[in-house]
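Researcher: We're teaching a course module on how sequence relates to structure. For the next exercise, students receive a sequence and then see the predicted structure as tokens, so they can try to spot secondary structure elements on their own. Here is the exercise chain.
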Amino acid sequence: MLKVLSRMHGSCVASRSDFWNGIDFTARFHRPSGALCQKSAVKHTASDLPQMPHCNFRPDPYQGMTANQMLHIRQHNCNPMTMKVTSYKKPVFIQQGHMQWLWDVDGKRYLDLFAGVATVSVGHCHPKVTAAAEKQLRRLWHTTNIYVYPTIHEYVEKLVALLPEPLKVVYLTNSGSEANDLAMLMARLHTGNFDIITFRGSYHGGSPQTMGLTSNMAYKYPVASGLGCHNTMCPDVFRGPWGGDHCRDSPVQTYRQCSCPADRCQANDMYINQLKEVFATTVPSRIAAFFGEPIQGVGGAVQYPKDYLKEAYRLVRERGGVCIADEVQTGFGRTGSHYWGFQGHDVIPDMVTMAKGIANGFPMGAVVTTSEIASSFSKGVHFNTFGGNPVACAIGSSVLDTIEEDGTQEISAKVGTYLLEELAKMRGKYEIIGDVRGKGLMIGVEMVKDKAPT
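Model: And here is the predicted structure for the students to work with:
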């Protein structure tokens, strides 16, 4: 699985006719399980590569550690997991970034299609966001929300203005795992129930609790975790047992044919039946929550049948559960058509978790919920030393402004649609490309051994 998640910005953006000149790029391959493949994304000799689009920005000359020194420290002093997730047979040593571009220690420029694991939402070192960070660093680095300081209130007011009623209460965290962990606790306290359902293949974090939500072997350890978490079949219309050629809300559909009437998706009905089977056999009659990404991220940019979440939310609420949209990857306009991924499914969740693009790479996350659910959480005391940090809030606030001022959501829609359509042409040309899917700049390209229709 080649995941393409990026944003295009500013004067360094290539024109449509020059888009494919950006062949030297950083990307990552994912297996269908969501695990990273340790393979180079591109295999070309230097003479094969076309010229990169022009960029006026010039990086600072690199004068730091050598690549060999960094690799030695990485191998011997960093946790072994750091080396395990180091992608490419020959590691890429990045030293500077500007908007969609990265430079390595040798001055080689890359077009970043991976965006720091779908995190750089408005461009590396965006001048406006950098200026906001510098301004706040000169004023106040840290205090906690025990005290009343402007940046947290300015940020929260801007954020809730972007969400529909009744999603108007915010808890700020430091990461997506932390946000999802907190959402689990809030759901259980509010409903008085314990069991939570997620999709197979999902990734919702690596903390002891969210590891239970994460339904992916590569991220599991042989220790007890995530008690009360269960999974249902992911409604993947390409790889799953059911699917057709008009299931997805995407410019590109699967090759699979179906005989569904225009007003009903039979694949959707079958996947909903799988969820009903979980209700009938695996969980109590009352549950705490259903977690779902609007587009499954680590699992392979998987899109569900158009009405799946709408029906799933109804069934979950009938059983006393709350519906939680994990917008860690899909939020902040990445899907192009909407600011939040859940809006593309015509649903309103009871809680929304977010991180990654929320602060363009600065550690920050959030849970947004209703006042009713929030009041249930006040039965005890919850305190977060760094959640809502003044610098994080100043950066997050600037990111929201920049998304609007730069038209980032519209860029995601325009460039993403073009990229999807061009990748679809490659699917028709190359047998190794089995599927192209996604919305905006949340795109997946699935590589296959056998392209025969299922």
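Model: If you want an answer key for the exercise: Residues 208 and 225 are 5 Å apart (CA to CA). Residues 10-30, 35-41 have pLDDT under 50 and may be disordered.
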